[in-house]
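Usage

Read records sequentially. Each one opens with the input sequence:
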Amino acid sequence: MRYLLLLFPLLLPAQGPISGVVIDSVTGAPVPKVSLQLSALSEPTPSQRHALTGASGEFHFAEVPGSAARYLLSVKKTGYLPGFYPGPGYFALFEIPPSGLAGLKIPLVPSSALSGVLVDHNGEPLEGKTVSATKQRTIAGQTIVTFSGPHGRTNDLGEFRIAGLSSGEYVLYADYGRRLLGTHTVQTGQTLEGIKAALPPPPIGFRASGKLSFVPARYSVGVSTIGPPSRGATVEADGSFTFTDVPPGHYSLVGNSGYAGNNTCEAGSVTISDADVTGVNLTPVPRFTLRGTIRLAEGAGALPASFTVVLSAPCAQRLEITTAADGTFTVPDFPQQRFKATVYPGAGLNLIEFRQSGQPVTTPDFAPEPLEILLDSRPAQISAQLEGATSPGGPMGVSVYLIPDQPTLPLEQIAMMNNQDPHTFPPTQRNVTLSRLLPGRYRLLAAEVPPNQGHLEEVLLLFPSLIQTITLAPGQNLEIKLPVITVAAMTAAGIELDR
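and closes with the structure output:
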C-alpha cells in the first residue's frame, strides 16, 4: 500500500492591520503629514514599516512587519515633540492581536521655543556664540539637570532660536554651560520671543609675582587653582615669575624642574582678593622615603610575583614602581605632599582598600605616610529576584544599577559614572545575577528603562525607599529581593522619559 504525503506550509498567526488618527494634544485637531514608524522589536532582525497621515490625520498600516510579540509605534512632525503609542516615551511597547488594531488616537504635543538676542556687557550683539537651554528640576532641595536642549549659534545680529522644547522652566547658558544668561518659562506650544540675554563683563584679573629660592636651568613654575582654571608662567633667569590677569581666588603654586632627572620642586600658595600681590615666594618641598606594602586578604590565595603601582603628587608626576616579591615597595626622595596611588593588581585580583596607620582611607589623596594596599581574589555576586508589576505593554527591558556608595561625590557625577553600563535584562526575566563584582558598599536599584543621566539623578532622589544599600564581602553571593521602579511610577513622579 502506498501513501500520498501532502506537505503544506506552516501557517503562523498573522497580525492584523493598524489604523487610527494623530491629533494635536492642545486643540484636538487632526494633524496631517505626520511621519509614523512601526517597528517589530522582538524579531531576530528588527523590521519596520512607515506611513504618513492624510489630510484628516488618519493613518493605516495594511501590512504589519514580521510576527513579533511586541511593537513600537513612533510619530514625528516638525513643530511637535516626538510622540509614541501607547506612551509615554520610546520605552512603551504593545501587542497586536490577529484582528489588528483600529481607532487608535495618538496625541502630539506642540513643542516650545526660546528666541532672542545675545549681547555683551556693553549691549553689542555677539556673533557665533553657542546658546543652550537646560531644563532643571528641584527635588528634596537639590537642583538637577533633567534635559539639555539643542545648542544654537547666534547669527551676525546676535539672534538665536532654540526649538524642540517641552513646557517648563529653562536656564539659558552661553559657551556650553560656562556662562549663565537667565531663567525663562515656556508653556506648551509657546515661542517665547524677545529675550535679551547679556553676557556679564569679564572678571577683573590681577597680577601675582614672586620668586623661587633656587633656579636650575630651564625651570618653569605652574599654578594649580582651587576654583578658577589652572595657569602657567615661565621663571626668569633670576628665579622670578609673574602671573597676569588672575581672577580673585586661592591658588596653590608648584614649581617643577623643566627637565628629567632633577628633583627640585618648590611650592607655595597665594590668595588674591582685589589687588595685585607681590612677594609670593616658593620654598623647596621636603623629601622622604615612601614605603608601602601590598597584601592579600586572608583566604585569598598566594601573592603574585609583582604588581605595578602608579604614584603622583604635585611634585612627582606619574611614578610607576614595581613591588618586590613580598609585595613591599620603597620610593626614595618622594615629595612630602599628599599624593594619589593607583594599583594594577593583575587578572583575578580586586582592590579592597587602602590603609594608613592601620585605618582604611577613602580619599584618593593620601598623607605622606606608609601605605598599605589590600587585595582579594574572591569576587562577589548578587542574585536578585525582581519584584513589582510591569507597565501596560511591558517595557523594553529592566536595568539594574549597582552604584558605589560615595556620599562625598556630587549626585551628577555619580549619575554620569553609573549611567554608562547598567546591567540590562529582558522584561520577562525575574531572577537576575550580577557576577564578578568588587566587594564594597553599594546602592542597588532596578528600573524598567535605562534612565539617561538626568533621569537617573531624578530616580535616586524620588524613590529612596526603592533603593537598597548593600555591603558585599569578598566571595559573597548576596541573595536579595529587588523592587522594580516602573515606567508608570516614574511618569507619575514627573520624569519625562521621552526627553
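Summary fields computed downstream for this record:
- The chain is about 5% helix and 50% strand.
- Residues 453-462 form the longest helix (10 residues).
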